[in-house]
Amino acid sequence: MVLASPVSNLHSAWASRLLEGLPAVTGDLAELQRRGRAALAATPLPQQHQEDWRFTDLSPLTALTPRWRKACPELPSDLPAPAPGTLRLWLDGRGDPLAGVVLPAGLTPLSPAELDGALGHSLAAVGCEHHWPVQFNHATAGRCLALRVSGPEPISLELVSAASQPESLLPLRLLLLLEEQAELELSQVLLGSGSSLTSLVLEAHLGRGARLRHAVIALGEAPACLLGHLAVEQESESRYQLSTASRGWALARLEPRISQLSGAAHTQLTGLQLAEERQVAVTHSWVRFEGPDGSLEQLHKAIADGQGRSVFNGAVRVPRAAQRTNASQLSRNLLLSPQARIDTKPELEIVADDVRCAHGATVSRLQLDQLFYLQSRGIDAELAANLLKRGFCAEALQQLPAAAANWRPLERLLRQGSPLGELP
């Protein structure tokens, strides 16, 4: 007889309590909700004996008791104004974000039939349709913002969400279809506080020559947690630029997964995550080239302080069909405390024989010679250390869309009073 472990029993009880508190399935996602709830009931939470979850401590997640609340979260009153020419939408997981909104030319909502035909396609293409966080989103999300992007004019879109009510659950589901040569700048801002849980699943399909410049700025306050999957399909000559920046969550796990469907596309991934106190910040990226002449530029940076833990796993798959692939991957990390921990694993799997692929990883402390140089110019030690940390972060934020500048991401990431550094 095989006995369930105490951890497994705890996880099963957590999922059962969550399912009992969900409302009846309804709306355009009703069938998806049914399948997700059945899968969630039958599938235990991931455990650390699974390779992809080996370094992810789920105790911050299971310490929460998230509940579905009928009331919509209120729009925070202290948000910065959107950048000129940028359409801002408020996503609360319940109301219609397009109600009363006039969309710009080239941006149209998908019909229910189009939504039904496209939903889940990108998740399957990148192999994560059965991942536990995705099934969790299936089970809980009642709405999907589904948009088609077309035409030659670039569009700037900002999506803002905030989970702030105690023990609240915020499920977000997005679907984007970019037609040939379409161009979109998308800024997503995720705010979380209190004992809340945010679940995000985004699917995007980029047509031939399409361009998507995508930012995810995730600003939380423990014990809030965040689980996010980004599934992207790229046709030839398309360009996908993703910049992510996160801090403050008790647990934040982001999983960008990209498939270049026929090669000759370009992917650029830039990530920055900060973990302090007892926070856990995790990024698992996955890129697969399905044809020749594709390219990838990836830079992931992390700072760990206090007893924080940063985890990065970047998987790149280059099968035999992906000849002349050009891929580079670099993980750079700052370890600022003897109790902090950084686990980094750049990973290349190459079958093709005509490629240019490289990866690397560094973990270091602040450089003494750089600190000495600044101090020799009359800058005190604390301010010198903070300037170096700001420079380390600023490099990773240069790829954010222009509309994201209104959020002052560097200042919010290195907020005043943080062990990571007072602002000068």
Q: What do these coordinates show?
A:
The chain has 424 residues and is of the alpha/beta class. It has one domain (17-68, 85-413). The protein is built from nine helices and 18 strands. The strands form two sheets. Strands 1-4-6-8-10-12-14-16-18 form a nine-stranded parallel beta sheet. It has a nine-stranded mixed beta sheet with strand order 2-3-5-7-9-11-13-15-17. Helix 2 packs across helix 6 and helix 7 packs across helix 8 (381-397). The longest helix has 17 residues, at 381-397. The radius of gyration is 21 Å and the shape is globular.
Oligomeric state as shown: single chain
What would the principal axes of the Cα set say about the shape?
A: globular
How far is the first residue's CA from the last residue's CA?
A: 62 Å
Number of beta strands: 18
Number of domains: 1
H/E series:
HHHEEHHHEEEEEEEEEEEEEEEEHHH
Radius of gyration, rounded?
21 Å
The largest pleated sheet is described as:
9 strands, parallel
**SS strand fraction:** 35-45%
Q: Count of helical segments?
A: 9
- Neighbour order of strands in the largest sheet: 1-4-6-8-10-12-14-16-18
Class derived from helix and strand content: alpha/beta
Low-confidence stretches: 416-424
**Which range best describes the helical content: under 10%, 10-25%, 25-40%, 40-55%, 55-70% or over 70%?**
10-25%
Compute the average pLDDT: 90
